[in-house]
Amino acid sequence: MDSFLGFEPDTALLVTGAASGIGEAIAMTAARLGLRVAAWDLKEEGARRTVKAIASEGGTATAFGVDAADASSVADAWAQTTHTFGAVSCLAAVAGPPSFGDRPFMEGLTAAIECMRLPTEAWLDQPDPGSRSAVYLSSVQGPRYGAGVSWYTVAKSAIDGYARSIAGMRTGGIRANAILPDWVLTPRTQQFVEKIGGIEWDANPMGRIAVAQDVANVAVFLLSPAAQYLNGISVEVDGGSHLRSLGWMRMAQISGSAA
Questions:
Q1: What is the average pLDDT across 111-125?
Q2: Which residues does residue 187 pair with via DSSP β-bridges, in sequence order?
Q3: Of 7, 42, 171, 254, which is least surrounded by CB within 10 A?
Q4: Following DSSP, what letter does each residue of 134-185 receive, concatenated?
Q5: 232 with 177: CB under 8 angstroms?
Q6: Are 122 and 78 in contact (CB under 8 A)?
Q7: What is the C-alpha to C-alpha distance for residues 117 and 134, in angstroms, rounded to an integer?
Q8: Backbone angles phi, psi at 231, to 5 degrees
Q9: For 129, which DSSP code?
């Protein structure tokens, strides 16, 4: 177990949306550090692939097919998870509906929020692990940017607020933080990233968009005892994209001052 992060041996982590992308990266990273991982996903086959990958590296994980926006499904999955792992002390709430596609406003908004709220509230009915830490996947879309799919923008703002509410009230003793990535290369976004020519992105000081591992590293740190006094913060994992606007980039290109 990593001495800096300070996880106790056999710490159990539940990751929703663990089949691919950011959720998969968090599950894999945590397992490499010795955490036992409950991999939840709407696509159980995908969760099983994550578990298989973890097992191939000597880690411990179990897959569960779960609709994180359905109370009954969540309750059943928590019962199975607790039976398998005992008390769970860490939660990475990643699952949520994709921002693209034709989805009614309230349907998208409700599903996104319930994917955070339902696993959290059901967690409080499980055995007390002594301490609880959670990370909630929001986005810079909403808390920072307003353009885009309207329900997604509102939902991500709500998730950011939900994390602060949990942190402020210390509901069930949960230490909670939100992660706000900018554009991240995942299986969901890959087709769009390819259309713009790949992950290189001049508008970002780092010269690229994020990959899932960038977000996973922050998530695992925030969940760890090393971050025990970080509570209620919103971490923008954006490579510094907020430091440059597209207007600034265009002006720099025209003037020849771009780096």
A1: 97
A2: none
A3: 254
A4: EEEE--SBTTTB--S-HHHHHHHHHHHHHHHHHHHHTGGGEEEEEEEESSEE
A5: yes
A6: yes
A7: 12
A8: -145, 125
A9: -
